Amino acid sequence: MISENSITEVCEGKATVDLPKSVFYNPVQEYNRDLTIAVISEFAEQHMKNPVSQTGSRAMRRKAACQDEKISFSEDRVSGNHNETHTLEAGQRYDNGIKIFEGLAASGLRSVRFGLEIPGVKEIIANDFDKNAVEFIERNIEKNNLSHLMKSKCGDAAMSMYESKAANCLFDVVDLDPYGSPSIFLDSTVQAVRDGGLLCITCTDAAVLCGNALEKCSAIYGAVSLRSKFCHEMALRIILQCLDSHANRYSRYIVPLVSLSVDFYFRVFVQVFTSQKQVKHSCTKKAMVYECVGCGSFGLQPLAQAIPTRGEDNFKFIPGSGLPLTKECKHCGHNYRIGGPIWSAPLHDRQFIERIITRVQDSPQLFNTHDRICGMLSVAAEELHDVPLYYVLDAVCSVLHCQPPNMMLMR
């Protein structure tokens, strides 16, 4: 039984929730939740335009979902045709809407905001292993009048997702925001979403992913991290290759929509598709990183290459060819250090990002952090999608012993 003296009320977005006084509410994470709501809202809009049946044949689902990265948010989305989805209302239940699973819901604040602010939702399941947390979830469901749309569940997040697969009740969206690494949940997560479903994953173990404990990074993510100037982007690429590797075991592959390094954590939004043919290309999207310990120059060595054979859709896969087999850097004579494998394909879907920016700019009152969302996504949209990692200007000038030029001139 919850004592009224032990709770505090928190308002965020359209939600008003009760939290235990012993629990620290971090307002910094409002950006995370605002961004997630914007992304899922855009995803839900696409789902309502082109719903994919969970009970249809595999061929039909594949046809509706696939064609690699051209899949998701192109043509009709870019044209700005919102007529159908403008009639949708947040807080209402839609039988053909999306089904959302939050595996580590705590008080349920995030899920409550989903229910109140995302249009086109069928059902939200807020899960937590702690019975006290589930009590607060149920309390907040009633407080926000969401009993028609939102359910609580007490159980292990991984087991809950395995059960959903076994029962053929796959989710359209899975959101995981753990304390630390999400690695123990990834195997179940990539199986728990439908074809074309959306994964929203947070990693807060930034020190591990940025090279402070490469042995732990190797054990958890299957890749060696490097402590370098580009460590934050490399961390994102390690997370994506780990997700893709988990998906590949089940003839599935990922398509990143948005990948961001924010404050003390990393947040990635990816779609998951099923296709044995496309999974074969996953090895061409991963590479090892060679970085000189002296001058900081680096190069990537792809794990494999796809060579076109008969017809446009037939490929022969061969081992990758890359950097010369030399121990010393050709620029300064120092040794190389090796990291990876990392995801070497694009981090974002530029068209999708532009749609989110438009959505947020059209309704800034819905997002308290709208300026930051638009700012970070605008930077992401301007990145070179086919150039992994980067050089830092002042580091290059330090190696060359010269005065760095004005950054505005370089831009």
From TrEMBL:
GO terms for biological process: tRNA N2-guanine methylation. GO terms for molecular function: tRNA (guanine(26)-N2)-dimethyltransferase activity; tRNA binding. It catalyses: guanosine(26) in tRNA + 2 S-adenosyl-L-methionine = N(2)-dimethylguanosine(26) in tRNA + 2 S-adenosyl-L-homocysteine + 2 H(+). GO terms for cellular component: nucleus. Pfam families: TRM. Keywords: Methyltransferase, RNA-binding, S-adenosyl-L-methionine, Transferase, tRNA processing, tRNA-binding. InterPro entries: SAM-dependent_MTases_sf, Trm1. Its EC number is 2.1.1.216. Belongs to the class I-like SAM-binding methyltransferase superfamily. Trm1 family. PANTHER family: N 2 ,N 2 -DIMETHYLGUANOSINE TRNA METHYLTRANSFERASE, TRNA (GUANINE(26)-N(2))-DIMETHYLTRANSFERASE. NCBIfam families: TRM1. This is tRNA (guanine(26)-N(2))-dimethyltransferase.
